[in-house]
Amino acid sequence: MVQFTTHRLAPDADGLDRAATLLKEGALVAFPTETVYGLGGDARDGTAVAGIYAAKGRPSFNPLIVHVPDLETAQRYGRFDAAMLALAQAFWPGPLTLVVPLGDAHGLSSLVTAGLDTVALRVPAQPIARALLQQFGGPIAAPSANPSGRISPTTADHVMAGLDGRIAAVLDGGPCPVGLESTIVGGAPLALLRPGGLAVEEIEAVAGPLATAKGGITAPGQLVSHYAPRAALRLNANHAHPGEQLLGFGPMQSDLNLSISGDLVEAAAHLFDHLHRLDASGRPIAVAPVPEIGLGRAINDRLRRAAAPRD
User: Structure pTM?
Assistant: First the structure.
């Protein structure tokens, strides 16, 4: 593929102006959100969206999330029923993606939706992401800014390690505070399509019990093998085998610990960064058990996909 000089842009007025200009020219720019760094391109420009798939090596049947500045803008691209409207009003801006039917005359590239009649929409809360959306003035398609299937990026350094030379720029906004991709909800009946940075319990307090997603790929993050380090990953480990590194949780001896105090919010924020650091050694990684409650559901989802058999 074409090689670029990937520029690291400061999150100031000049950096935002340059990032917005590059997006308007059809180039790709990575930017921070509260969840992970996204690889942004103009969601209306088929060439730009194709460039996202090419830069990531992402399967074209895997749809992308479209980022917009507010609910009013989101309603230009998708149709919101009462349940979806209630969720948007409760949790936007924030780490929740809603999959809704495409609106009439939406103007989005068909590559964004992978040919589906639905679109995944999100209003991010991160100030730099919001400023970029306002400066750009259009919808930004943005999956995580990493090679497809690999560990998601929560710093600009992570982005550069995976995509340097493949994209035009990265807008450096420091570490992402949530550290897990957004939770995705969609369908009728309303279903959890991907656990993420917003706990399911909070969503169900507004929408009622969510169904379990069935069928094929209907939203980002549903590939069986995803978020994977290069090294082998072993789950539910209480200790490391010879040659392994241990990623701990709670009070225990380990090479790195997601949260010594057992705080799931802290663990989510550390997950991808710790996996990047351990993967750099090239040694297999063992991971301690994480409770399947709250954000632990999303953490375990990422770990199971990271440990899944790979093509």
Answer: 0.84
